[in-house]
């Protein structure tokens, strides 16, 4: 069973995933969302990099995580996003051993790993520079369906500069980020009961087949596999 709540860290979410019934295989596939996560599993701390495709979740046991708002994790974790693209990496491979031990101890001292991870994330944010407001504006514009070129102009960035900053912050270029965010918008509409064709149009796709191709490309699954049957019109 997957549960999520808003974190005390602005823009972040705290989540847990556990098997809900005997034989449950856990959270299934994690879809691209433009985010990075700090994870706890089986006593270990890991970092989930930004995905360009669906990721098969781990074993059927407790997982906990803090999902950072797109573009914010690299400054907190001290690693460019593109170095972790489509990867799950032990925090011990990224940080000095002493820092990993302190973070792990903080998680284990909490009454639940998810709350411990949130405390680690809050401590990281308290010692880091404030989030880059330009990155926040970029995410907001692309999530609203603004074209990449027009957004770059509005932000006063050239194409190469925007691409370079996007690689560091998001793990991929702005066009890929725009694709991921558009797919998430369409899926949210479809899961809310909006017919597929209307969801495609409202999210900015040419038509329903275009949406279906993008979902298949980014997740490896058919659109209908990602929308509960009782919501499909």
From TrEMBL:
<keyword id="KW-0238">DNA-binding</keyword>
<dbReference type="InterPro" id="IPR046532">
    <property type="entry name" value="DUF6597"/>
</dbReference>
<dbReference type="GO" id="GO:0043565">
    <property type="term" value="F:sequence-specific DNA binding"/>
</dbReference>
<dbReference type="InterPro" id="IPR018062">
    <property type="entry name" value="HTH_AraC-typ_CS"/>
</dbReference>
<keyword id="KW-0805">Transcription regulation</keyword>
<dbReference type="Pfam" id="PF20240">
    <property type="entry name" value="DUF6597"/>
</dbReference>
<keyword id="KW-0804">Transcription</keyword>
<feature type="region of interest" description="Disordered">
    <location>
        <begin position="1"/>
        <end position="26"/>
    </location>
</feature>
<dbReference type="Pfam" id="PF12833">
    <property type="entry name" value="HTH_18"/>
</dbReference>
<dbReference type="InterPro" id="IPR050204">
    <property type="entry name" value="AraC_XylS_family_regulators"/>
</dbReference>
<dbReference type="InterPro" id="IPR018060">
    <property type="entry name" value="HTH_AraC"/>
</dbReference>
<feature type="domain" description="HTH araC/xylS-type">
    <location>
        <begin position="132"/>
        <end position="229"/>
    </location>
</feature>
<dbReference type="GO" id="GO:0003700">
    <property type="term" value="F:DNA-binding transcription factor activity"/>
</dbReference>
<protein>
    <submittedName>
        <fullName>AraC family transcription regulator</fullName>
    </submittedName>
</protein>
């Amino acid at each position: 069973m997957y549960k999520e709540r808003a974190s005390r860290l602005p823009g972040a979410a705290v989540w847990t995933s556990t098997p809900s019934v005997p034989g449950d295989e856990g959270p299934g596939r994690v879809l691209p969302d433009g985010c990075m996560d700090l994870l706890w599993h089986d006593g270990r701390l890991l970092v989930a990099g930004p995905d360009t495709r669906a990721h098969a979740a781990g074993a059927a046991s407790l997982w906990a995580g803090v999902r950072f708002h797109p573009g914010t994790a690299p400054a907190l974790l001290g690693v460019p996003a593109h170095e972790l693209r489509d990867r799950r990496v032990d925090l011990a491979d990224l940080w000095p051993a002493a820092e990993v031990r302190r973070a792990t101890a903080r998680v284990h001292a909490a009454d639940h790993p998810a709350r411990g991870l949130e405390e680690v994330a809050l401590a990281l944010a308290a010692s880091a520079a404030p989030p880059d407001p330009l990155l926040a504006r970029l995410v907001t514009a692309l999530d609203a369906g603004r074209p990449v070129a027009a957004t770059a102009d509005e932000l006063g960035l050239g194409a190469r500069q925007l691409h370079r900053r996007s690689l560091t912050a998001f793990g991929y270029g702005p066009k890929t980020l725009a694709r991921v965010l558009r797919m998430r918008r369409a899926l949210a509409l479809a899961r809310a009961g909006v017919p597929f064709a209307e969801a495609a149009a409202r999210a900015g796709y040419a038509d329903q087949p275009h949406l279906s191709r993008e979902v298949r490309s980014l997740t490896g699954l058919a659109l209908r596999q990602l929308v509960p049957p009782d919501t499909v019109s």
